[in-house]
Amino acid sequence: QLQVVESGGGLVQPGGSLRLSCTTSRGTLNYYTIGWFRQAPGKEREGVSCIDLSGSDTNYADSVKDRFTISRDKAVNTVYLQMNSLKPEDTAVYYCAVRWNRCSLSRDDFRSWGQGTQVTVSS
Question: How crowded is the C-beta side of 25, counted as CA atoms within 13 Å?
């Protein structure tokens, strides 16, 4: 069974950057489309970005477009989320998950969720 693991979160000042990583402790991501999601306290889990199996199709939520970049490196079984120009409203637990087929930002389309990594943007 696939076990997804996120890392790279932390505390950063507004305007700063972080790079999140998504990999597996069991299985491989290389057969799947990968989505990044986030959940802030008291809010629903929302889609942030996705990348398809080939890496050629990506999608972003409007709130992060032009600030976040998703990529994947199949050689190391990892999907990255580069987050620049971070804002306090980006504070959340960030999760990655997998699905077959094309990109989607709907959480209901994904499975095999990791435990998440906390991102806090604060001065």
Answer: 9
Distance CA 92, CA 53 (A): 26
Q: What per-residue confidence (pLDDT) applies to 12?
A: 98
- Average pLDDT for residues 97-120, to the nearest whole number? 95
Q: What is the pLDDT of residue 32?
A: 96
Give the phi and the psi of residue 17 in degrees, each rounded to 5: -135, 150
DSSP 8-state code for residue 8: -
Contact 48, 82 (CB under 8 A): no
Helices (H), 31-106: none
Q: Cα–chain-centroid distance for residue 21?
A: 8
CA 122: distance to chain centroid?
Answer: 20
